Predict the 3D structure of the following.
Amino acid sequence: MTNIVGEQRTAGEGQATGGRPAVDERRTPAPSGGAGGTDWRAVAATTAGADRAEAEAGVRLAYRQAGLAEPERVVWADSPLVGTAAVLSLTGQRATLPSDVEARAARALRAAGVDPDAPRPGRSVREAVRTAPWEAERRRVLAELGPQGWAARWALTSAPLWELTRGLTDRVRAGIIIGLAGPDQGRATGVVIGAGTTAPAPGAGPDERQGGVQDERRGEPQGEQRGAARETAVRLALASAVLGQHDAAWLAAFDGAEALTGVSAVARAAGWWWPYENVAVISERPRELHRDEAGRLDRGDGPALAYPDGFALYAWRGMPVPADFLEGLDALDARRIRTEENAELRRVMLEHYRYDRYLSESGAQPVHRDETGVLWRIELEGDEPVVMVEVVNSTPEPDGSSRTYWLRVPPRTRTAREGVAWTFGLSAEAYEPQRQT
């Protein structure tokens, strides 16, 4: 089975062919869109509900383009988490699933006319539907443009989206693994697998709920071994996925390619999907997506990523945070921040509360003062100290007042001048402003 990440890296190899590529304008596509005219950035970021008719038509076209018979059944899942669970059910691994997720996957299968007890999905056809046409198209474009032309096309079409979508899919993939293979860790790691879901006890699967001694009698893995086996099953199911809208980055380099018409149509209409001989499983797109200016998942008052069935990821500036952690941010005070033992969560608290407010309310003492400002320092147990320079804007406001700013500087800073100079990338000795504004 082919590794998804490995394929994505291969697709980008052309951009690293040595130095800045020379651009042949005659062979380079327009930066926006491509021959197909698709706005792939918008495709990757959309939170609109799936266009199910378009997605199913795209799936059937992709099968035909691969020389395969169309799938007999199309199963819709409300999230890639339940899509993965449906795949595990199709492939005879229902026992690895949390009970409520197993039930949701079974409902999705039955709604499509698939019997969860006798699913008959056939083999995965991802290689024929997605990988083989992508490889053929890449060889064709490379032969047509040459290494430099291919690198230039990649730089103009796919590179701007690559890290953005890869970071997002990595987080979704990690959330699914936690949600299905370690649901007892879910809320603590910012993963919610769905409203009303009751996670089983650690190490428990459906068989254990009906009598765990059966596993030992059958010689099946126990404890950590069972957890590892469950995680492996989930990872293999994820490796058989086509990423739909999240394939936008590499599809942008082949916009309008005839051989990828079906795969592209699904990407424009839906989320992740799994092609099997007789059954295709398609996921809805997220209904909420919140990112910061760096493209990281980020939200202070709810899930940063959420799907229609409640599968959600919580994050603050890219860092996973417990789902109930954000609910307490508005009630923070300096004592609560000081007693938080987790250094990463304490950092999130400080960013939300503001460093200057924390210094002001926590009894921090100035450690140095000169004509540039006041240096403050406060020690944090188990973490680096917070060191900031308080400076006053020398240009008065229209009402005659002067604004105070707080500049966070490295913990090694010993003087206010050194800290202010550091914000300009200078040493204290080199910092000699002729005019202050």
